[in-house]
Design goal:
Largest sheet: 6 strands, mixed, barrel
Structural class: alpha+beta
Distance between the termini: 20 Å
Strand order of the largest sheet: 3-19-16-18-17-20
Helix content: 10-25%
Radius of gyration: 23 Å
Strand content: 25-35%
Oligomer: single chain
Number of strands: 20
Length: 416
């Protein structure tokens, strides 16, 4: 998972812009359509979307109602666009996705950054990509315990702490925790900290880590050229680092320091440094280039810091929350409370900063902490600078339809 915050991961940009979506047919009273009735259906490239579905089937084939669908999908030859289109039309119904505000929602984008780096520190590559520090400890903190003023735990495997129920005073060898000491992150049920004697204290903020605190015990996975690109790597939650010999090192989210993500784009708008329309990833990068002396001030606005792990190589995309590689242009992050992971989703929106229609059959294969609500998606654009250009500028309005196997309703699909 692009744990991203991703997994993948936190938005830099803000609300939807005023771009309008292409006209949408209104579904019937039951909200269900044949895929052939969806906008621009006949213009779709079915080869790439079929490949993405076949990735999802590595997981969804084990779910009720999907086994026969996935078996038939596996039999379609690569490049047979006509047969792939007929497959989707004969096996699926399209259900309009709606919320209390209607069928329109916000579509943003994310990507996998590509950085230049090295295994060794040098004048060219002075910025470290850290693994998880040995002193970072994690405690599960379920909502049922949120009213407790004192907790007691002991060390468990790895960097985990095990809660000792019913105790409010630490014995020798045990750890005392005061939840009120810790920053509030409504999206997390974990406390992350470091030991001071027998007491767990909050882990270091981004600003403190930039000063060298805590990272003496953290392995360095690579050294990179650009601190701004490293910051955006943390926001995205995974990426690729091209080494001197031309090979690639894939890194992904391993752990985080326990602080909620804060948007530096929002801060720049609130301070009058950027307009709302300019608060894209590219706009933020431009502001930093124009104000290099304020770079650390800006980065410190976001106290969250991501630590990485190395991932298997190859040309496939990073693994999303579904556990399968993401496909550039055909995978989306969704709110799984509304759209089950593995579901094909027909997306009707517009290209970034444009009114040109963008309609595509994509697949719900990831989640993200900023992706909340029914009609809400984050489109994965792939990796590299071009993908970053599209992802950083995408904040469009759009509509969505879930494609479910015939005979399956949305309530059936949501069942565990």
């Amino acid at each position: 998972m692009l744990k991203r915050l991703l997994l993948l991961l936190p938005l830099l940009w803000l609300a939807a812009c005023s771009t309008t979506s292409p006209p949408m047919p209104r579904p019937g009273d039951g909200g269900v359509l044949s895929p052939a009735a969806l906008p621009a259906w006949q213009q779709q490239n079915m080869g790439d979307t079929l490949s993405a579905l076949q990735q999802s089937c590595k997981v969804t084939a084990r779910k009720p109602g999907w086994q026969a669908v996935c078996a038939d999908a596996a039999r379609i030859p690569s490049g047979d666009d006509t047969r792939a289109r007929l497959f989707f039309e004969s096996h699926f119904n399209a259900w309009a996705v709606r919320d209390s505000a209607g069928s329109g929602g916000l579509i943003t984008g994310y990507y996998e950054p590509l950085l230049n780096g090295s295994r060794s520190r040098s004048e060219r590559t002075p910025y470290p990509v850290y693994g998880v520090p040995a002193d970072l400890l994690v405690l599960d903190y379920p909502p049922a315990l949120h009213g407790r003023s004192v907790l007691v735990a002991r060390k468990a495997a790895g960097n985990r702490l095990q809660l000792l129920p019913g105790k409010n005073e630490a014995a020798p060898g045990e750890i005392e925790i005061h939840p009120a000491d810790f920053p509030v992150d409504p999206r997390s049920n974990k406390l992350k900290g470091r030991l001071a004697g027998n007491r767990l204290l909050p882990y270091y903020t981004r600003a403190e880590i930039a000063q060298g605190k805590g990272v003496a015990s953290a392995p360095v996975l690579a050294w990179v050229e650009d601190p701004v690109e490293l910051f955006f790597l943390q926001v995205q939650g995974s990426g690729r680092i091209q080494l001197e010999d031309g090979s690639f090192l894939h890194v992904g989210y391993a752990e985080q320091n326990g602080y909620a993500y804060q948007s530096i784009g929002k801060w720049l708008v609130e301070k009058g440094e950027l307009t709302l329309s300019a608060a894209s990833m590219q706009g933020i990068q431009g502001w930093i280039k124009a104000h290099p002396g304020r770079q650390q001030e800006l980065f410190a606005v976001n106290p969250s810091y991501v630590f990485f792990k190395t991932l298997p190589g190859g040309d496939s995309g990073p693994a999303g929350a579904l556990g399968v590689p993401l496909t550039g242009g055909y995978s989306i992050a969704v709110d799984p409370h509304y759209i089950p992971l593995g579901t094909p989703v027909y997306l009707a929106t517009t290209w970034p900063l444009s009114q040109q229609p963008l309609t595509r059959l994509v697949h719900a294969q990831d989640t993200g902490s900023a992706i909340r609500g029914a009609v809400r998606a984050d489109l994965f654009w792939g990796y590299g600078s071009e993908a970053g250009m599209y992802a950083g500028r995408m904040k469009q309005s759009g509509s969505m339809w879930m494609l479910l196997p015939k005979g399956m309703t949305p309530s059936m699909a949501a069942a565990p």
